[in-house]
Amino acid sequence: MYSMHYQIETKYWRRQVPNIHDESHNETPTKTDLVETKNEFHHELPIEARKEAFQHFASILDVLYTGLHKTQTTDKQARIDLQQYLDSGNGIEYLSKYPDKKYKINSIDMYNRIEIYMVVNGVKTAIHGIRYLDYVDRLDYDLLEDLQGLVLEYNTYTKNNYSTAGYETNVDFTTVGGKKETFIKTPVNWNELVSDYAGLELIS
Prior knowledge:
Strand content: 25-35%
Order of helices and strands: EEHHHEEEEHEEH
Shape: globular
Distance between the termini: 34 Å
Largest sheet: 4 strands, antiparallel
Number of domains: 1
Structural class: alpha+beta
Oligomer: single chain
């Protein structure tokens, strides 16, 4: 039997956690410092379940921003601001003589995220989320995974004659190695991303 719904999974720090590299104390982050939740959204019209999922996602961000004593502006800025909940600062950075080649090994935070999934017959596909980032001044490459999920989601709606009227967007990704795509809107400003990274082969 065919089934489709949406799901939000979260994993983030509920407070500032101890830095394991700080020799002035012997505390370490524990599982009790983490918030981990899963919520499902079902409706006979998938677009309505999707709307409920994104509304719940927005409410989570509202709560987190209240803790920061800030006002949310854009999705792009939220990916920076909310690292306070996603990045414990416990990553180990590896450096080289090339500044742009540095990278982090972070087993503690690498799965921290607030993510929306489309679930079809038990198979999850990420379509939107805010995640732990090694460096906030670099491209969040998981956005490209979300884009693949959004294209799959739109094709799923089309194949099953589910309505997307009023929720579609069209974006031209040719300048970053892709093609013109139609999918259902999310808070991401995809045209800005294309403009920022024009000339790079982000999509193959």
